[in-house]
Amino acid sequence: MSLRDALGERLRVLPDDCKRYPISGVTPKSVALPRDGKETALALAAATAEGATVVVRGAGTKSHRLPRPRTVDVVLDTSALDDVMEHAAEDLIITVGGGTPLVKLESVLRAHGQFWPCDAPFAATSTVGGTIASNAHGALRLRYGPLREQILGAKLATPDGVLVRTGARVVKSVAGYDAHKLMAGSFGTLGVIVEATLRVAPLPETENIVVARFRSPVSACAIARAVAASMLFPLSIVLVDDACARRVGALLAHASTGSWLLLVRCGGNKRSVARQVSDLKKACESSGADAVSVLDHAATPRAWSDIRELTGGAPYDAGRFVVVKTTSLPTDTPAAIADARNRWPTAEISAQPGSGIVYAHIPASDLVAPIGTNGELPRVENLTRAYMRAGWSASILSGPPSIAAAQDSHSNTLPAYVTAPGAPTRLFRAVKAALDPAGTLDPGRLPGGV
Amino acid sequence: MDGRFAAALEAIVGRRHALTTPDEIRAYAYDGGVDRAQPLGVVLPGSTEEIAAVVRACRERDVRFVPRGAGTGLSGGAIAALDALVISTARLRRILEIDAPNRIAIVEPGVVNADVSAAAKPHGLRYVPDPSSMAACTIGGNIAENSGGLHCLAYGVTSAHVLGIKIVTPDGDIEWLGGKTIDAPGYDLVGVFIGSEGTLGIATQAVLALSPMPESVQTLLGVFDSTDDATAAVSAIIARGIVPGALEMMDALATSAVEAHVGAGLPVDAAALLLIDIEGLSDGLDQTVEAVASICREHGAREVRIAQEGEQRDLIWKGRKSAFGAMGRISPDYYVQDGVIPRSQLPAMLRDVTAAGTKHGLRIANVFHAGDGNLHPLILFDKDKEGELDRALAAGADILEACVSRGGSISGEHGIGLEKRDCMPLQFTPDDLGFMERLKSAFNPDDRCNPGKVFPTGRRCGESARTAQSGALDERTAALAGEPF
Question: pTM value?
Fold first, then answer.
């Protein structure tokens, strides 16, 4: 069966249609819009039979995250896979289509006093499948653990057009391999998430955000580490410089030039939150914070919906900013911040200091300009070597097309990603070859050319 | 074992650590489950490199091998089926590093689970997964089985607490999956390696995530005259938005055994007990405890006891943790099942369990992780009575079928191994299993590493456990005597 037979009018080939689905600057030759899992599987089988390459796309908010593909035959848009199959509220489980928007998921859950403990960025448009595929876990990871643990099971469409289930629709199962967890961070290169069964959690009765202003990120990071290891058990911890802070309405009044804001989100019942807030205030004040304030329960949801966007560079126009994410040990976070500040003096910086994550949002004009003259990016050329030496990882989350183009033609410029030394690329290749032997699903764009 | 192969192994691990005589290897023929098989031999390597060398020696001679930790598993995962060599991790038992500021521990696979928390305690940290066998089971086995425990309801099972694993692949290569830092670009192979029951390679080091200890813990004991009321209370607690640290249930038969065994002061005339840990900051804890207590009362609890930290609380949990071992007080033998259902199905499922017992003429005690919907029916039988073992296994298969038909899973934490491989088709289609087999082939293409496990052989569910030599249950009972399950 051809792609056309499999999808009929839901295969778009007009240039105007295809232009709306660019992948790292490359326009696909066609766009597939399957209505359900079965049609998704048929489309994949047809693509594999035709030797076509397929890039899976949810809302497209992170489609540019991997290096520029050589060619894209088909973009497979999952947005029609947006049903809520089952919400077993008293079992703290929900099963939704892979194309379900996060806003839809969150509104269904909120009506039952629940949430999916993954405050991924691009919340207004992102899909569940895209969030999983890009491992966009957000800052709640500190309290609730890795994104892969928030997925209990899945129905996947494989490149040969078969629908398979892994995991279960219960909170705990060790039957068979947890292949659904492998989807987290796989960018749609192993299978298409047709359905996902998610672990959900009750919304905390009360939430507050403690906002502490520090002159140095070093002391703020030290407090963050101590709090993360303490019995206060906050929901999440984010650190922003003053430029980042000014992108969050609720923080405008707290930002001051050259200072850093440590944001600790606390949840629980009223007395527990009051205690967390009081302990945090004391800890910050005694460690050099020059101002500490609290956003109350009413102010928190709005403020956090802005703060969560900082975790993936979402508020930064990809045409004007390059967003680089670095991960290191939490004790290395101050060094990673200093390195980013030194490398890119004009960057706006945010971090999750309890988890070792740093985001640098670099004005593209400061990076791209030299490409036009001699093709060099002097401020980044040693990045790979420096990061490898430190055992850090880095990846570009977004940037203008000129950056993607530079990645094509200049091997020593800003790399799409730096993996920590000794990444098991042989196993990456073996897994890819086993699950997508024909190389249908977006081949060649992951580390090791997988 | 062929003499040249034995010599090659001895050259790698040293003569003392290569066991080949029947006397030496007898103890490795069984785990805590129903299956048994004599291994080809046993090696106890002293390092990752030695494990890799042993695996390469196996590859050269096409010898199959089975990784083995403490041997406390319950599904035959560490049993050397198909004449395989056992590679024991027992000598790799160092805690290499407790890095408190980064909240990680780096350990070797032979480290006993409880020892990690003990080492982390001075820093106010703990390693959360706490299977009932935590005093004996080891981290390597926990990774293989994705072990749970009493506290995984609130904090997640093993896979939520492992950042990186150094492995020896089935080809004998050494690789790191994940590491000390998170979010490395590329596939996250940690999540799929954990719970793969030793079929994707051998873990030789692990980076474990440590969590802060709660400031305060209170334990509630809810006493119910009906199991339906108790299970309804479980659902109501979760529905109220409270996720306790632990939420366990015991029925009357289990309680009577526990009381005979340890005398924990539990009411033996109750139909069901709920054991609930509420933990967190001391501020606000009383309110949560009171909310849970009222939910229990609203659902017909005739009594709710609240124990602060200390002797009374320890006694309650000692009772729970000794429940499996206590079965010896009320039955010559027992067969522990492990299945999961959605919490909301608990009342109906417990009736299914009772029905399975009635159908096969056997008593079944229930003691389980109610908060997770993870049942552990203990099927009581007497192996000396003709046909009782077969009936116990048949009752177990019926219970698994009921779990699947109620939307659940055939294993919550004990694994598939040999015991349940032929039950996999209850839960998975041939396509599902084919997909998993392809994933396995990426790591273990020749099925040399822990062969014959997890995937079905074509027999009926409940039959495969019988493939073990007759008398397996004798061994098992002997092995379990005094084991702290």
Answer: 0.95
